[in-house]
Amino acid sequence: MDNHKSDTRVHKENWVHKENWMHKERYRYIYCIVIFVSMFLLAFPVSGISDTGFKTAVVVSRKIRPYIHVVDGITENMPKDLSQLDVFFLSHQNNQNNQNQKVNPINSQVITQIKENHYDLVTAIGPEALALVCDTKLSSKKFYTAVLDPHALPQVGPNVCGISLRIPVQVQLEKITRTFQNIRKIGLIFDPRHNQRFYDQAVMNSKDQPVDIIPLQVTSRNQIGSVLKENKEEIDAIWMIPDQTVISEKIIRYVIKHGIYNNIGVIGYNSFFTRSGAFFSFEFDYKALGIQAGEKMAAYLTTGECTRETPVFDTIINQKMADKIGIQVKK
After folding, report:
1. φ, ψ for residue 137 (rounded to 5)?
2. Residue 174 belongs to what H/E stretch?
3. CA angle, corner 249, sides to 247 and 254, nearest 5?
4. Which domains does the chain have, with CATH numbers?
5. What is the pLDDT of residues 268-300, one digit of tens each?
């Protein structure tokens, strides 16, 4: 009997000892985990893995195909694990009951939503969206794309960055002279009230190229015919740029027709020109522009680097028209 009690006591002591050992091992395991996590956080700070917390708002001027293609490019190229992306379309409806109201009520609601959600970055697509975003007191970083002259808008400050639709004059001129062999005198048609700076830059950059820039200045559409007639013997090609005085589909067709009749080619800035008979034009792939914007937006969010970029673009040669008017394409 005594032996049985002794064995029972020894068994209990062994069980208690084993349980104490297991508790010590559990605490030792937890302690090791805590040390490991602490060392990991020291090596990789929380700020370095919190990029997924970014929020981006994309404000679009209107629902037209080029802007929608830009949105598609951005949404496909912006890493989903980097930023939440919300898209807002502005309204252009006239509110007759609130004619004294500066901002359309629907657009005011868009701005209110953006303010309440505290976005890290607000991207504007189109000039109306950019003007509204910059006219509103937002603490968010601001970015633009698909805007011709963003910094010509009075609301846009010097610290706003993005990708405009303005291909630098130097880049355009180099592309023209490298593509065509026998163009020596280019007539630039423009209204000096809108594009004097463009003309000045073209003249300055032409000094490094084998071409001269001939000014075809107009201040009204009624002057276009007479200016072209007066200079037809002085130019090899007519260069048309975005200019609100000069540009309309009717005028584009008129200038191209006048050029063909006088054996003068036209250079334009979208595919409508080459479809209408221009021998050369610059063109934007708006989805590619969106992809470019998405890359720059991601860099802006992660590094804070704010830059103004030259837009990606293509060129179109209307070979049939070039051959017709005797313009030689360099091989």
Report:
1. -75, 95
2. helix 169-179
3. 90
4. 51-165+286-309 (3.40.50.2300), 169-283 (3.40.50.2300)
5. 999 999 999 999 999 999 999 999 999 999 999
